[in-house]
Hints:
By secondary structure, the protein is an alpha+beta fold. It has one helix spanning 31-45, and strands at residues 2-6, 9-16, 19-27, 49-51, 55-64, 67-76. It contains one helix and six strands. The chain has a six-stranded antiparallel β-sheet, with helices on one face. A hairpin with a 2-residue loop joins strand 2 and strand 3. The chain is globular and about 35 Å long.
Amino acid sequence: MEVEYKDRCEEVFAIGTGMSVCVARLDSSSAEACSLREQLYAVAERNGHISGCAFVLSVRIFENFGEDAFRVTIETR
C-alpha cells in the first residue's frame, strides 16, 4: 500500500503488479487521517517495522512532490 497527500486528502492505494487502485480518500484535516499519519510515522521511527504474531508491518517514508508519502508492506509469517 501507499499513502500519499493530494488535493488536501490522504489517498490510500493498494498496489499490485503493474497497477494500483485508490481504496480510500481521507480529508487531511480529519481525525482519521491525522491518526493514520501519526501511526505511520510512529512505525517508521521504530526501525520501520512492527512484528506481530502473524505478520510484519513495514513503513518507509519517501518524498512525493515535496510531501511525505508512505510505502506500507504487510508480510505474513
